[in-house]
Amino acid sequence: MSGHSKWATIKRKKGALDAARGQMFTKIIKEISVAAKLGGSDPEGNPRLKAAVLKAKAANMPKDNIERAIKKGAGELAGVEYFEMTYEAYGPNGVGLIIETLTDNKNRTAADIRYILNKYGGSLGTTGSVSYLFKKKGVLEFDAQKYSEDQILDIALEAGAEDVKTEDGIITVTTAPEDFERVFTTINNKNIQQEMAEVTLIPDNWVKLEGENLQKAQNLIEKLEENDDVQNVYHNLDLPEEEEE
What's the CATH code of the domain at 18? Predict the structure, then answer.
């Protein structure tokens, strides 16, 4: 299960490199709006919307922002129409990339993704060429300085979690996608506050790079994440421990 801890390392590194908190909120709002448009405004009957709302709550997004995004998606308020596009690509030295986008202009986004890939040593792959390297999982993180692993372990496993691990001051709970909501709600009901919670893609194996090759791959990932239309960049780049700080 070490991959889950490595994923946590990547997410903390990614968090430090992400643009401002406002950009993160913007991306979550897009996801909420699209989910509401596709499956309706009731989270109880719309699993995708429920997952997006859970992610928003985990990020401490104000309730008014969430409700407004749902209403826009459901057509109750004027809003922009977004389209989903997913790209499978390779970074330098075979790093696998899955790039999820939500955009109001498909041509612009496609051109932007190709430009970034070409400029920073990446290339587009064919459908299925990269996605098989990843598995979908629910992941929740907790501050090990606030809570003990034992405190979370029994609650998480009883609720259906697959794994609980502690590494580098972070307690990571991993679930099957279909069990994510139950585990999230059960732990929250015990007044245990997560640092992060989302359904994501975790790679089966990691690509280890060093020196200039590592820097090139990181630069590509960072540039993709900075694009306003990019919702998520999943990758299997093995970040070394010294990159934590």
Answer: 1.10.10.200
Both 194 and 222 in one domain: the answer is no
> pLDDT tens for residues 137-176?
999 999 999 999 999 999 999 999 999 999 889 999 999 9
pLDDT digits (tens, 9 = 90+) for 160-170: 999 999 988 99
Q: Which long-range contacts (CB under 8 A, 24 or more apart) does 49-53 make?
A: 50/181, 51/180, 51/181, 51/198, 51/199, 52/28
Dihedral over Cα of 23, 25, 29, 31: its sign: positive
Considering the domain architecture, whether residues 213 and 119 belong to the same structural domain is answered as: yes
The per-residue pLDDT for range 80-129, each reduced to its tens digit, is 888 999 999 999 999 999 999 999 999 999 999 999 999 999 999 999 99
Q: Which residues span the domain enclosing 9?
A: 2-74
Q: How many residues does the chain have?
A: 245
My answer on whether 215 and 110 are in the same domain is: yes
If one counts the domains in the chain, the total is 3
Six token digits for residue 161: 């979690």
User: Own/partner pairs for 58-62, CB < 8 Å, 24+ apart?
Assistant: 58/140, 58/184, 58/194, 58/196, 58/197, 58/198, 59/24, 59/25, 59/28, 59/196, 61/25, 61/28
Q: Is the dihedral of CA 40, 45, 51, 53 positive or negative?
A: positive
